[in-house]
Structures are given as structure tokens and as C-alpha cells.
Amino acid sequence: MSLQIVRNLSRNSRGMWFNSSISRVRMNMSTEGQKLTTSQYQMQQIISQDTASEKDKLNMRITSTIDAFKMHETDRGSSGVQIAVMTEKIKNLVRHFAQHKKDKHSMRGFQQLLSKRRYMMKYMKKNDFEGFKEVVKKLGLEREAVRL
Q1: Residue 136: which residues within 8 A CB-CB, separation 6 or more?
Q2: How far apart are CA 72 and CA 64, in angstroms?
Q3: For residue 64, is pLDDT > 70?
Q4: d(CA 30, CA 74)
Q5: According to the model, what pLDDT value does residue 124 have?
Q6: Is residue 102 domain-shared with residue 30, that is, in the same domain?
Q7: Higher model confidence: residue 35 or residue 118?
Q8: Mean pLDDT computed over 6-33
Q9: Distance CA 56, CA 84 (A)
Q10: Angle at the Cα of 123 (from 97 to 85), degrees rounded to 5?
Q11: Which of 20, 32, 88, 121 has its CA 20 to 30 A from that of 6?
């Protein structure tokens, strides 16, 4: 494993360039045993879920949810998929509100999302009851389904 020194250049108040810090970047080995360049290593860090932002993590969870609930290869808008995606977004907002108790402005969007999911569940219950039961069971929404 080799180390590479990366200089971070910044401008001071007069517009002159200077070294703000010198950091060491590790050169990782890929699974095939070849060395990764710094940009490839940084890209690997961006892609990994450990260093991803909360929005990227949510998008990854939504993508995996879509893959789990799609009826065919290009399915993105069926009722089951929409209910599953809304449920992921709702779970994300619940985590957000646990940390940020005074965020009242996001609460309105949260309530709208709950309402949309409720209407979508009513629609699916009326038109595709077997699919509705399957989606409710997979997502663990039995309590919400009883109220419809």
C-alpha cells in the first residue's frame, strides 16, 4: 500500500495561492489486485454507503425498494411500487423528526405524504386486493391497512 501526498491549495485574502494543508491519501487495491488511482479511490468512497450523504442513502434504499416491488423490468409507477417508495420516504422523515423535533415546516410535507399513501392504499385495496395484501404484508403496514 503506497501513500500519496495531496496538497490542498487555497487563496488568502489577497488572492495569493498557498498550501492550506497537506493530507495523505491512501492508494487502495481493488479486488483484482490492481492499484486504484486517487480519483478512482475517491469515486469508490463516494459510491460506498458508509460515506454517502443521507439523501444518497435514501435514494439507494428507494432503488432497492423499487427492485423488490416491481411487477416487470421497467415498472416504476404501479401502485405497489408507489406505496413502497412513499413508505421509505415516511421512514426517513420519522428518523429526521426524531433528531429535529422543532422542524414544523417539514411536518406539513410529512402529513401530505401520509395522506397520499393512504389514498394510494385505498385505491389499491379497491382495484387489486391480492396485490394490496402482499404489499401490506411485505411493508408491515397491517395497522394502517385496518383503518382503510
Answers
A1: 121, 142, 144, 145
A2: 14
A3: yes
A4: 32
A5: 96
A6: no
A7: 118
A8: 50
A9: 18
A10: 40
A11: 32
Q: pLDDT tier at 10 (50, 70, 90 boundaries)?
A: low
pTM: predicted TM-score of the whole model, two decimal places: 0.67
Distance CA(115)–CA(94), nearest Å, equals 15
Grouping H, G, I as helix, E, B as strand and the rest as coil, residue 37 is coil
Q: Say whether both 61 and 26 belong to one domain.
A: no
Q: Are residues 141 and 126 in the same domain?
A: yes
Q: Which of helix, strand or coil describes residue 33? A: coil
- Residues in CB range of 117: below 8 A, 6 or more apart: 83, 86, 87, 90
Report how many domains make up the chain: 2
Q: Does residue 141 register a pLDDT over 60?
A: yes
61 and 123 in one domain?
Answer: yes
